[in-house]
Structures are given as C-alpha cells and as structure tokens.
Amino acid sequence: VPSATAAGRLRPEAGLRGADVLALGDPAYPRPASGDRAETWRGRLTRLPGSRAEVEAVGTHVLVGEKATVSGLRAALEEHGRWRAVHLACHGLVDPRRPMRSALALAPTASEDGLLTAFDVLRMDIDADLAVLSACESGRGKLYRGEGLVGLTRAFMGAGAPRLLVSLWTVDDDSTAALMRSFYAHWAPKDGSAGLD
Questions:
Q1: Taking CA 27 as the corner, what is the angle to CA 29 and CA 129, rounded to the nearest 5 degrees?
Q2: Residue 9 and residue 73: Cα distance in Å, rounded?
Q3: Greatest CA separation found in the chain?
Q4: What does the alpha-carbon distance between residue 145 and residue 8 come to, in Å, rounded to a whole number?
Q5: Residue 53: CB partners within 8 Å, gap ≥ 6?
Q6: Residues near 179 by Cβ (< 8 Å), separated by ≥ 6?
Q7: DSSP codes of every residue in 119-142
Q8: pTM for the complete prediction?
Q9: Cβ atoms of residues 68 and 27 within 8 Å
Q10: Is residue 89 predicted with pLDDT exceeding 70?
C-alpha cells in the first residue's frame, strides 16, 4: 500500500471474497471529427482486438466495443455485490505532471468523452477483491513526498480495491491477453473451483 491511510481504508476489505469477474475491453474508439475536444487522444488510439478475446476468456460479465463505457462500468458496479475482480483491458493514458488526470480510455458516448480519470475512479465504489488495469503503464504515477505514488493505482485503492494488478510499461495486446488468461485460470477459474487466494 502507498500509505498508512490507504492501509487503514483497505484493511476491512482484505478478508472478503467476491463472486464473478466484471471484464471490460476492446472499447470502440471512433475516429474524431474535426474540432472534437477529445481529438488529441482519440486520433492516436487503435482498437485492441486481443483485449476482446482477453475479457471474453476471463469475464463472467463482459462489456466490449460500444458497451465498454464509463457509464456501463458504473452501472455494473452498482448493480452487483462484491466482484471477485474488476478487469479493465484498454489503453492507459498517463499524465506524469498531473497524475490524477491519468486515465483509462474507454468508449465515448454522446455525453461522455470516454476517459475514466483517476479523479473519476476516486468518486466510485470499486467493491472487488482485485482490480486489474490491463493497460499500458497503468501502474505509473508521480511520487509525492509523504504521499507516495499518486495516479490510477492510488485512485483504485481509494475507491476500495484492496489489490491491484497493473503494468509499469507498454504492453503488447496479444501477449497481455495470453498472460491474463493464464492468470485467471489459476486465480479465478470459470469452472467454479476456488482457485488460488
């Protein structure tokens, strides 16, 4: 944990065990229209077909393509009890100067730009045993003296996820999908067996 405050916040969550895996992946990134305020990030992101196979292999509740939105994620979190895992397979956008503006790029809608920022995550309740941020550099942030590392990892912990699996570097779509399938086969098997703790 990054701080004693985070440890105190997460301690009650440590002994709980959820059910099912909420998996979101392969968000639909449309090509931006001229003058679109999200053009700076949308124009450089490509679809992640490996992430679709990844979430379909690991998830029991799956949001893909145009359904892989911020509002879709919020609704799934509110409608379900505790999850075994919340798995997000998408592009990660790190802002090293303003780490709370770092984001996971989900599918935009008419009313949402598709960016799930660290600020947004802090306003959510992530009731899950594990949050998996299967996105490039999702574990990076900015180190503040007395606070520790601030970014997406800290935001997910602040939202209630006691454990995180993140990446510190750029990752390949297909390799990540293979790694995640293997991880979940041992940790949260779909056959109903307990798996590893």
A1: 150
A2: 23
A3: 51
A4: 19
A5: 177
A6: none
A7: HHHHTS---EEEEEEESTTTT-EE
A8: 0.87
A9: yes
A10: yes
